Structure formats: structure tokens, C-alpha cells
Fold these 4 entries.
Entry 1:
Amino acid sequence: MKKMLGGLLLFLLLVGCSGQDNPPPAEEGAQGPSTESLEALSEVAEKVEVDLPDFAGEAHPKALETYKLAYAHQDVLKYMPCFCGCGDTGHEHNLHCFIRDVKPDGEVVWDRMGFT
């Protein structure tokens, strides 16, 4: 289950960070995540308790879920490289597309990159 969630999280994060409104057509035989697995991720996100940033109020519900999942899985995202071209803004990994920093007191400094 953990591998499935990790794989789906990676897929959602890469898609969310791609900056493309119209993704390229899928290769023949390629399949995305199942409806059931996406629903399972939504259920996981619903259980995450975190105060999202003010700009999240403008976001699509799936973007909000992604931010919650990023918060809940920081330990995974910090090992995932980001390929959206945000390295010139100081991002070192996929986590930085959502969370810029976590202060010693636990305060989260959010990043808008995952929102765009």
C-alpha cells in the first residue's frame, strides 16, 4: 500500500508541477492511476490536519489535496528530484515545490510553485 501511495503521489506531483494545461497524448497502452487509487489518495488527504496557506483558497480541490499529501509525506518528497525547471529559484527537490521550509517551531513556509 505504501509503494502504491508513493507512486501515485509521485505521479500527482509531477503532473501538478508540469505547468501544462493540455498534457501530451498518452502512449498506446499507457495507463494512469485508477479511479480507486485516486479516491484512496483523496481519503488520505482528508485526514491530514494542517493549516494551508492563504493562497490555497484560490486552488482547485485536487491542488489542496496535493499540498496536504506533500505535507504528510515530506520524508519522501525530499528525495524526489523536480523536473519542472524551478531549480533556478532555489528548489533542491520536489518538496520545495510545496514547502519552502519548516521552522524549528514547526511553522511551515509554503511555496506557490505546486499551486501553479
Entry 2:
Amino acid sequence: MAEHDLPIIDLEPLVSGAPGGLEKVAAEIGRAAREIGFFYVRNHGVDSALVERTFAAAHRFFAEPIETKMALTKDFYKTNRGYVPMKGENLDPDKPADLKEAFNIGLDLAPDDPRIVSGEPFRAVNQWPEIPGWKETVLSYFNSVWGLGRLIHRAVATDLGTDPAYFEDKLDAPLATLRLLHYPPQPAGAEAGQIGAGTHTDYGNLTILLPDAVGGLEVRRRDGVWLKAPTIDGTFVCNIGDCLMRWTNDVYVSTPHRVVNSGGRQRYSIAFFLDPNPDAQVVCLPGCVPEGQSAAYEPISGADYLKSRLDASYAPVKSKSAGG
């Protein structure tokens, strides 16, 4: 693999339901998930006009006065909803705070939803800026890429030798997060080691990332070489997260990555992190355990897995939410 290349997978055979399309795409995704953990997808079925409107919504929000944005920080570090100010996170705890700001939403639930009322783990009411049409645009995007993530999981299940629908009832009410991100140009006076998003892996199953044309995403290959992941028109960048790595008994491996915004321009990206339902059982798939061996991980619920990853590090200054 060249130092700048990641696999580009055409999803048209899967999206269209063409004969043999699921199996073809499954083999390509499986190969990428085993070898590098990152891949582009094209012909994915997400409307390009919706993509443009969502980027416009991100630009509009981050242009708001800081006082307006800070009003949407209520209980962020408990709910993972709302605004994160510049330098409010630290994805690499050994480095200075990240040079980015962000806004998060999750599954959109009403205050009287039983899941909210009962205190179901990691459920919360979204916060919304008072910008006409903003909520509708961002929710439409959330729902569209959520559908894409479930479709990709059909290919994942097929590659791993199980029913294509295996993940469907584990991702139909997910602990998913849509995150809008804004990175300023890398300042000349940045602290040593301070970049847009520090080196990290993602916690969930699958990340679907939409960076703008500025670029800046870098992926660490298995041999330690850092690859640039340039923006390719009409594609998303996808990567395997730690939870899917656990589900596959390390057959799939999550890959460290970072953002270095060194191009002298403002950078925007939109990341969708697909974590399983809170009550989904993350248990090793049978085909992922070699004969005569045991699974490397005990079964755990989606909520307990997420809690186990956040407890030690999810604090107001040194948090490990996500970047992309």
C-alpha cells in the first residue's frame, strides 16, 4: 500500500441489492478491516444536497458568538450532548488539549420518552441552537448516515460468517453520536505536540466521517507509518472502532488516527460514531474464535462497555470523546 492510500470501496452493489453485491462488498470491507481498519466508501446513497446543507449548518453554528455556543454546554460531560469549546478535550492524554471545538447530538428523544424518564444509561435530551431549520437538517443527516452504518454492518456480518441481519436489532436504538467539528489553522504559537485532534482510537463499532476539502486526517498503519487520508469528493471515510474489534475477537482491529490541520485554513468535519444499543450484548461472534480456543473477551452490554471506556478518562478537561 502506498503511503497515501486507503482502500476505496464502491457500495453501489450493496445499496442497489444487485445479485452477489452483498458478498462482493463484504469481502472488500473485511479485507480493509483486517489490514488497515480504515476505508473510503463511494456510491453510498447519502444525498449530496443533504451533505451540503449539513456542512452549511456546521459553518453557521460555529460562527455564532462564543456566549451563544457556551449556553449549550449544560452537563456535556454527563450527557455527551451539546457544545465543546476550543481546547475542551484531550484525545491524547500525553499531549496538550486539542485545537478544535465541537457540537454533539445523539438519538433524538423527547423529555418524556421512557428511556429518559427511567434514566437509561447514556440517554439524554439533545440541545439545539436557535437557528431556523438547523435541527431538521442535522437530524436528517443523522438518520441518513445511521441507515448507511446499518447497511455497512450487513456487509460486516456477512464477512464474519453470520446472518447479514445479525447487527440490526443491536443498532436500531444505538448510543450513536453525530459530531460537528471545527478546527482553526494550526497556530504558530501552539504548544509542543498540540494538534487538532490527538492520536486515539474510536470507542464504538463504526465511524462514518465526512471531512471538508482541507484534509488533515492521518492514519497510523500497522507498521507505524502515518498515512495521509485526503478528502475524496463523494466519499465518506469509515473506520473500525474498539467495540467492533471486541465483537470480532480482534479479527478486525481499530486503528490510531489524528488530525493535523497544517494547511493554514479553517477545517470542518462531520463525524458519526455508531455505538450499539445499550442493552445489546457484545459477545464474540462464533466464526471469530479459532478452533480449540476461547474468546479473548467476556460478554458485556453496550452500555457497560461504553461506561468501562469512559469512567477513567471522561472528565471536563481530559475527556476522550472523539475527533475526525
Entry 3:
Amino acid sequence: MTTLNASHFPAQVPPKPSGSYAHIVMLRITDSYLLFQTDGELNTARVSAGSNGESSKQIITRLTMFKRKQTTPERLVGRELLRRYGFISAESVDGSSKEAEDAMGLPFDEYNVRFCQWTPDAISYGYAIGDTGSERSKVLSDTCYSLTPYDDSHEAFTLNAPYESGTMSQRGDVTSRINEQDHVRPQVIFPSVLTMRDLTLPLFRYVLNNVLRTRRYGAQTTRTGRVENRIIGIVLADGEIFSNLKFTQRLYDALKAQGAINLPDPVDIGAATAIAQQLLPDLVKEDGVVISQLLQGDDLAAFLQSLNQESSDENSVKALLQAAWNDSENYHEAWLSKGKKGKK
């Protein structure tokens, strides 16, 4: 971890916002057909193609990936690891149950049913549980937009549900279970900035590990939905940096200027990655915040490689989760709990 400025992160999660921001700047790249939809249709937005000259006046429709469609799969991966390594119970629990722990002494914790309020998931991503309490998310996300227009980024498929015989008819009856559905195409790029505010280094690493491990997004993730989160930079600062939309528009302009956008062909991923890395320092300078560290290039590659080695070792994963657990539990006991809770 020598390539990351550890002194930027607070020693403990503070009770009030204290201006310690860590940003993961990445390209979310679809590796298969995906569904990002509400009410049966892909989510879209009408926005300017770029931010300079004529492109700023050209209005196009872009696919959108809403914030919860980004963070929900990532926090579920983190919760899966907490369950896998014995930090929270694997048992299902009724939301009205008064039992706090299972027979093994592990706290019950079920997403959107009953949150254990001192886990790294609860403290990092937040929760709201009716009258029993809530915690604001310290992971800040926003809608991200496809680099290329909707018309060149989606494809309609006709879907069916055959009988056991593999045909659409049985005993003379033909099924009507045929439907058409729009999917996001492979190699569509969604530039994205994920911001963490006032998390300790172990909790930052917990969230980053979730991002790196998450492979599937959107609906029907058991059949499709593969996404690569390609990190191009980590920015440590005293405030928030540029938006997803600004990032997308500036990247679009730069690729267009170099002739790297040739619709309807997909954008070359290598070219998009290289140009995004070149844009990052200038984009950060425009934001008027104090930068503690901009980690990219070889230093970023070395840092991510060290994380990859740790995530491949069971003892290292346990140590990462334990450190994050300790920090989240300490925060809960200091600022949220009225009495001491059971500890891991």
C-alpha cells in the first residue's frame, strides 16, 4: 500500500463531514448484453454530445445507468464476502424478529430487510430502518451516461419461453410467451466517478475491493450483465471533483477530435482508456479543490496489482474485512449506539 497516501484518510470515521474525499475514476465497460431499465424500457437521457463548440449544441440520447444500479451490486458483493468469511449470519431473518444473532453468535443482517448497523456495509453505504435508525451513505454516486448515443449502444432482442420439448407449442396450443426487449450492447463505455467521503483507509479499501470484484450489473444477472470496471485513477482531495456527465462529454470530444469514434462501430477500449488517463489531470485542476494525491499510471497499476494479490489470498481477504469491521464497529459504538453491541 506504499503508493497510496494513507495520511489523507481519517484515523476514525468522523461524526460530521470533514472534507476527506477519495474518488475512484473509472470506465465501466459492458462485456455482454445488459439490461438497465425501469418500467420495461432502457433508461435514457437527452443531453449534449460534448462540452465544447458544436458538440455542446448537439443534443443526443444517451443510455443511463442510475446510481443504485451501480452501488447495489457492489455492496451485495461486499456483503457476500462478509457472509463467506463469518462476519455476518448466512441465515435468513424475519424483519420483525427480535433475535440479534444466530446460534453461532453472528449478527443477523439481510439487505433491505434488516441491517446490522455496525458492519462495513452499513457504515459505508448507509441504511434506513424505519424508526430503528438510519445512517447517511458515505459512498456518493450519480447517474452515469453511455459514451456513445442510444441508437448505437442498444439492440432489441425477441425472447421466448419454450416448453420442455424446446418448442413453442404443446398439445396443439401455441404459447404467447414471446417478448421483445432492448439490451445494452457489449463494449459500451460508461465513464464514472465513485466518491467516498470521510472513510478510513480500511473502509476505502473495502469499497474499492467491492468495485474490483463486481462483475455483473443490471437485471437478469444470472444470464448476462457482465461489466469490467477499468480504474484509470484514484483522486484524494478535500472536496468533490467533476461529474459523470462532464467526464463523458469531455472524453467524447477528445475521442472525436482524434477520429476514435466511428459509429456504429464500438469505440476502441484501449484508445478510450489512454485518452481518459490524459484528460484526468486537467479535469481535476478545473475543480478548484486541494489534491492530496492523484494516483494513476504505473503507480496506480502497482497499487491495483498489490490489491489483486491480496484479494487472491484468503488470509489477506480476512484481514481486509477485519480491519474494515473494526473501524465501522468503532464508529457505531462512538456515535450511534446507546449501549455496547456484540463484537466480532
Entry 4:
Amino acid sequence: MLTIKALNEKLAGGAYDAQLSHIYCEPVENIGQYRDRIAHVACGFAEVFGKDENAEVAVFSAPGRTEIGGNHTDHQRGRVLTGSVNLDALAVAAPNGTNMVNIHSEGYGMTSIDITSLAPVKEEENTTASLIRGILNAITEEGYKISGFDAYVKSDVPGGSGLSSSACFEVLIGAIIDGLYCNKELPMAKIARIGQYAENVYFGKPSGLMDQMGCAIGGIITIDFFDKENPVYEAVDFDFASAGYALCIVDSGADHADLTGDYAAVPAEMRAVAAALGKEVLSEVDPAEFYAAIPQIRESVGDRAILRAIHYYNDCDRVKAQVAALKEGNFDKFLTLVNESGKSSFTYLQNIATYRDAADQPVGVALAVAEHLLGGEGAHRVHGGGFAGTIQAFVPLAKVDAFREGMDALLGEGATKVMYIRPVGGCTIAE
């Protein structure tokens, strides 16, 4: 731990410049904004919690993530390709010697919980408090003694962007607790599982593990979730910029309200197919067995479930092929596979629109305009859950400005964000 005064002096003196350059994928001469951001969060901590410059603190970070391959495959314990991005949630935190955990998120306010009891609280479901309590409980069950702490959080990972702001927050809270009370002994893969546990059991959302793993591990990773207790992940070393492409995430501006049933239906229908064949999830069903059984199970599970299962098997195979293409440096093949995944999501997975209102198809329009602006180059696909939210595009560097201008003209200023793959997941920046 170091005092706020010492932190600010080190920031001003450039002590963290090389580290921040590495984390945020910017040359050293451009990282003044990140020094200023940390100083801003430290100032916010002091103001909110009534501390002076001699208060001891630590600084933590967790990134958002982008789904590169494997759309709606993780909840069937399939394969994904994901990467952390250079947008993050940043926290300044310190123990407070009480039984209260107080987390102030800039723009959202304070969340405080009494940690005397860490059992799930029904009234907290679907709230930030439930995530914090669930993470605390899981880490306590690992054998660590935890007491209260204060934290001031500022995030530039926008909610509803498909960049996993909730998983980013979960990993950040896990990193804070690990740094303050666990001697940084918890592997980031464990913190990812803890975040998923909190989201599933305490928050009440039946999410997969891809989001948390993508935020926690850092860099580009491929994950095989077949063993649900021990998912296998592997780093994939590739620089998209070196291939002459930028990774762009575009917010379609669609409203997420009333889409819970649409999102839930995707894993439910895939599981229905698996159940019809005596299994829990599709990864346990051999593809040949599935295709042979379609005539027998089609009526009971429904045609959309069959199509979604077909997407699942094909997209898992595409992830393996994408990883191979990146390892071989065959970026053209990789782009072809990205486009194929996007077409499969549109045609088989059917997570582009709800079709309850034929006039309301913002994701489909965003994809169509992106295809037009790319002019046969690069690749584009739906990003994340679908139905609303974002699309992803790999854009030739020479076309980035025109692409961003065209998409922002359609969807609003700032809808298009140019991303870099961050090589570091959840971490301690200063202590």
C-alpha cells in the first residue's frame, strides 16, 4: 500500500509510464490521459470517503472483453475465442477496518453491504450488491479472511455495449479482494469462475463463463469449456494492427428492455436438443449423433432449436479453424471465418432481431451498412448476445475513418469505437 500523496508523486514522475503503456496499448508519449485518470480516481476516493493525502491505497484494473469467435457457444460448454480490450474499470481501494464494504461507482453512486452475513439476499437479486456479496462469499469459502473495504470505481466500459461491463466489474472486485486480503494468490481463472458464480447464484443471471474469462485472463485466448470445472484456455499471440486491420465495435443503439426471454431462449432451446438426446448440453452430444437424430427430435424440440444447434456445432468448429489461421498468420482465412460466423448467427442462431416488429431491426441494418462500407474487404458479425447491442467489424486501417464516419452517421456520434487487444487482464497497477 502507498499513500495517495506518494501515488500522485509517482504518477507525475513517470514511475508507472512503462506499465501503463503496456496495459493500455499506447506509446509512452500518449499515456498522460491514463496517469490523469488514476489521479482522478484517487481524488474521488479521498473526497467520497473523507481521506487526506496520507491515506494508504492500492490501484486495480479490469478490462472489458470482445467476443472474436464462438457466438452463444460458451453456455453449451463449447469453444470460444475472446480478447480483452483497452477499455477498463479502474479502482482505488483500501481496507476500512469494519464489516462494511462500500463501493462508489462514478456516475452510479454508492453500494454498501454488511458482510457479517454473506448468504444470498433475495431482495438484492439483479443488483450490484448481489454481485459483490456473491464474490465475497466465494472467496471466503476459499479459506481467506476478509473484512470491509472502501473503493472508488470509474469505468469506461459502457453498459450494454457487448464489452461485458458486468463481468469487468466482477473481475475488478475479485482483483481488489485478492490484492487486499489474499496476497494476490487467486489465479485470474479462479476469479473468473467466482464472478460467474456470483452472477449465476446471487444476481440470478444464467450466464456462461466466457465474459469473465475474457476480462480476467487478458490478451487473446481460446477457451474450451467442455470440462465445466476446469475449462482449458490457451493464449493466441496475434496483433490485428500488424495485419493492417482495426477491430471496431459498433453500438446499434437498440434497446435491451424486454429481451430477457429472447436471450434465455437460446441456451434453453440448445439444452432442449441435448436433453432429447439424453445429455445436459450440446458439447456432450456427438455432432453425427445429432444430425442422425434430427428426424426423430425435430417435432418435440422445434425447428428453431435444431437450427440453433447446427449453429453451435459449426461455430465451435470455426473457432478451432480461426485459432489455426491466426497461428499460421493466415489473416484472410480468419476474416472469411468471421464472416461465416456472422452469416450463421443471422441464419441459424437467429439472434439478430426478435421479429416481433418487422419494422424494428437495428442490428440487421447496422450489419448491412457495415457490409456496404467495407466494400468486400474485412469482416463483420453480430457481437455478443445479439437482438440488441453491438456488431463487430475488422476494418482495413485505410478505411477506418470512412467506416467510423458512415456508421456514426447511421447510429449517432460515438457509436463506433476502435479497440486494441489489451495484453493484461485483471491486475494491480499500484500498491
